[in-house]
Amino acid sequence: xxxxxxxxxxxxxxxxxxxxxxxxxxxxxxxxxxxxxxxxxxxxxxxxxxxxxxxxxxxxxxxxxxxxxxxxxxxxxxxxxxxxxxxxxxxxxxxxxxxxxxxxxxxxxxxxxxxxxxxxxxxxxxxxxxxxxxxxxxxxxxxxxxxxxxxxx
Length: 153
Known about the structure:
This protein is mainly alpha-helical and 153 residues long. The protein has one domain (2-152). The protein has helices at 2-17, 29-53, 62-90, 96-123, 126-129, 131-136; strands at residues 137-142, 147-152. Strands 1-2 form a two-stranded antiparallel ribbon. Helix 3 packs antiparallel against helix 4. The two termini are 27 Å apart.
């Protein structure tokens, strides 16, 4: 699902920094554009991960899963935003190309590693939700004979 989020980030970010948040028009336009673009990508990724990538691992507690997903995503957004800030304000690279490299190459790589690991092993983890136990076997009880049958999935 990251591909859709990446497209949303790149398109939104570049539309904003060449339009309403262009350098010279809005102070810190690159940072604001980064936050807006990544927020839209987070929403895209939430929908994609919930209903497609990890659809078989969905928990019944959508609210809890959503809070966890957005918490992880906000930290990941902080990683991308920090990369743009370091590139722009610390290293002095202020071109559109430098902003795109900072956000969509360096920030994407670091943020993706962080986010995927936490989505996979925390937010959408089948072990954490008890899904593995539920799908590992089914139990049938024959009430007439009292026979218990366990079927592995």
